[in-house]
Design goal:
The chain is of the alpha/beta class and about 450 residues long. The chain is about 35% helix and about 25% strand. The protein has 2 domains: about 1-50 and about 375-430, Urease, subunit C, domain 1; about 55-365, Alpha-Beta Barrel (TIM Barrel). The two termini are about 30 Å apart.
Amino acid sequence: MADLKIKNAKIFLPTGLIDGELTVSGGKIEEISKTGLPEGNKILDAEDRLVIPGVIDGHGHFYDPKFLQREDFESGTKAASIGGVTTVISMPLDTPIIKPKEIEEAIKAGERNSIIDFSLHAGNMKEDSYRYVPEIIKKGIKTFKIFTCPPYSLDRSVIKRIMTIVKKEGGISFIHAEDKEIIEQKTEELRKSGRKDSIAHAESRPSEAEKRAVEKIVKDQKEIGCPVHLAHISSKDGVETVEKAKNGSGDITAETCPHFLVFSEKDLEKKGPYLRTNPPVKKKKDVAALWNHLSKGTIDIVTTDHAPGTREEKEIGKDDIWKSQIGVPGVETLLPILYSEGVNEGRISLRRLVETLCTNPAKRFGLYPRKGTIEEGTDADLTIIERKKTYRIEDENVHYKVGWTPYDGMEVQGVPITTISRGEIITKDRNILGKSGRGKFLSTSS
């Protein structure tokens, strides 16, 4: 007898949506059928709700031993599970994850505290980090975070050296692309003029900085042949440059984030330091362009770049934006925002939602087909969505350690109500049932 049977469901399969049921045994999907499957030890009636693969957040800052007051694997992955996310790939914030000991410590922290499965990106790469690439890949990590800009900028020649060895070892260069020279010049001009307002930060990192950096990376990628993933594309200029690069058949993928799909500079004026991110939110034309290119497929993945700061770390920037911590929390609201603002508003199809949140991150980051799809034999990572249910996002009801969200007051329709990780129901009706430490480290390079 199966461990679990889910019946009366609308299941999104690679072939499309079906009315059906599935069974789970040993943490794997055993059978999928329209009807007639045997009963399980546990029965879950989906009551005609939508079942999609568990969401993968491919870029979030869930753990840094220096900043545990902001987030840790326990709090971050509990929030993720409430939002229908069953796998996170954690990115270094400030403390490096490059040397073997650093990798081992991060894995131990995750396995000790995470409620869901997780992987890691290596970084932030330094001038001599190229020599660790082979060993990092042997540790189960195939992606390497590289900055073209402050605060972790590397010279172009150093980046090319890292890209060359990453290609040789079968990895992916994961690049934050904004132009160092433009940012430094603009920042100096603004600070000399006495600007401390929130828009000054946006003006210090204009669309041109993203465009120019992407152009340089694309040129080097074609020369070297290293697979490249471009982090958090935020502008019309940036995404159009990505589109041209893809037409040239380079091995390039790109992501954007919900805050770039929802907010513009007008919101930055209202929310101030609570919406300070790198890159910054742009103009309404950029928001529209990102949705368009998400629908077209230019943007492959939507991630959160989840990077909470405490209220104190944010509030300090109200009178001087340059003092504020950079980043916003977003993992708990990723799926409901994309479903509500994307699928419900006709900006993207349900298929594109599943591709960008589930299948594409699994494929790009070495987790497919174990994760990212609903098929017989895959991990039973599933998210059940009540499509008509509305929900008001508020600071008081998010599960982040910092206790706030930039989406405070936003109403969404299409809410994850049950999250299943490897066949275990870990959240139901916004109640956390899974235990910390049940999450497993997933190698992305095996």
